Amino acid sequence: MKKAFVLAALAMTATAFGAQADTVRFGIDGNYPPFAKQGADGKLHGFDVDIAYALCAAMKASCEIVPQDWDGLIPALNANKFDAILSSMSITDERKKAVDFTNKYYNTPSRMIAKAGTKVDQAAFKGKKIGALRASTQEKFAKDFWGKSGATIVSYGKAPEGFLDLKSGRIDGMFVDSVVGDADFLKTAQGKGFAFVGPEYSDSKYFGYGAGIAVKKGNKQLTERLNQAIAQIRKDGSYKKVQDKYFSFNVYGN
Predict the structure, then answer these.
(1) CA 58, CA 21: separation in Å to the nearest integer?
(2) Where is the signal peptide (predicted)?
(3) 14-50 confidence digits (pLDDT tens)
(4) 168-204 pLDDT tens trace
(5) Is the bond preceding 34 in cis, omega lying within 30 degrees of 0?
(6) Are 185 and 191 a contacting pair, CB within 8 Å?
């Protein structure tokens, strides 16, 4: 009888912890290099993807990457298409109304990309067009900062689409995460003649407190597991190994 009770208790524990010994599914937008991009093998690769696998190793869980376009990430999470969003999503008070967040796993500023030498202030883009990723913190800031001063904000489902329009002259600036803008545009052939212009933008009112992993509201168990895993990979060197593969600076921030 005692043995049966112990086995039942173990079964209940396994059920309670769900994916702890099984699989954690991460939703990731694959149109955001160097954080995530589809490779020649058809799979997603990048900083976010490697961090996901490092976290799963720390949690002793299998890892499944589920590709999902940016503006569908939160709806897909709430529809149980995956367990968490690990896709460079800034922790903001507005998003906290829809999802819960872990602690940050990196923090980088946003910047404007335009023709080299372009002047940037609140009125600089009056009558002009600025691109931003749809449903991003950059889009919200651009609408409030430049949009209210007469600029038209053009929203894109994928950042590379905005870079193409910037290169062709269909928009006058592209407001993006600085790492994405540098790696996916300025350091490529199509970025010739363009540059970061103006200051770095990191106002927490818009850009939050760094990028975190989003989980469904109320899922405290998974949130805590992920927080513990983030702390572990920061401590054991796994995080730095992934960071150094993609960046030459401290992407975690202060």
Answers:
(1) 12
(2) 1-21
(3) 333 443 458 999 999 999 999 999 999 999 999 999 9
(4) 999 999 999 999 999 999 999 999 999 999 999 999 9
(5) yes
(6) yes
pTM value is 0.79
Per the listing, tokens 């002047």 go with 119
Token look-up 């993006």 returns 176
Residue type present at position 155 = S
How far, in Å, CA of 66 to CA of 48, rounded?
12
* Alpha carbon distance, N-terminus to C-terminus of the chain: 55
Tokens matching residue 46: 């990048």
Pair 127, 238: CB distance under 8 Å = no
R_g of the chain computed on alpha carbons:
20
Could you give the count of Cα atoms lying within 13 Å of 149 in the half-sphere of its Cβ? 14
